[in-house]
Amino acid sequence: MSARDDHGGGRDVTSFAGKVAVVTGGGSGIGRALALQLAREGARVVVADVDEADALETVRLAAAAGSDGLAVRTNVAERDEVDRLAERVFERYGAVHVLCNNAGVVVHGGLEAATWEDWQWVLGVNLWGVVHGLLAFLPRMIARGEGGHVVNTASMAGLIASRGLGVYNTSKYAVVGLSETLAKDLRPHGIGVTVVCPMGVTTRIRAADRNRPAALRRAAGAPDAEEVTLIGRTLEPEDVARRTLEAVRAGELYVITHDEGLEPLRRRFQRLEEAVRRRPEV
Fold it and tell me: What's this model's pTM, rounded to 2 decimal places?
């Protein structure tokens, strides 16, 4: 492993002035905070969200901060919708410098009770949404040769397993692993990668079921799962956005927002180390 294998790499995004940024799930929460922080720093922002009214409100707020913006209703679980988003962005601006794959949803409950619909919905948004973003935007970002940066929103649940969050954990572990590999693959193209792994943040993700497609709703009569109570503080989205853009400017791969996550991380890697040391010699 090289000295830079744990670094996000990239070039040309030490400043966001004049850059074009795309933020999925930008209608609220971390996505809106990212879009508005980018706008305040001079970027033109494209806000994609399944809730068009929320996306338009974010663009309105970005315009008040002096940014030219575009709102596009997009369900990131559908590849054709993300492809159309990319077409609109490149037609209007001709380039994308910062791609924030941020849209996310959650279901609670043990894996033994998870339904096919739960898996389809959560993986469709949280994992396939990231994949669709990469497929739609990366080839043209690479072809332009201007560098850039990809921000993938994961979670501390992508680093530490939590009982009652198994479907969500699965999606976010995948996003972390994808991001770590992507950082290595994109380094020759001058495109950096940052993966954001927060714990509790004041967002509406617990109310994400409001936008769950009818075809993927749980069957009538299915038991409601008890919500998981997270440890640690609850941060504001603006704090996460600020730390994330600091990491982009610095070319850092990981954004770990909560000190409370350090001890669980230590315990996990201690168990991994112990497993290696217990291995019998062959």
Answer: 0.91
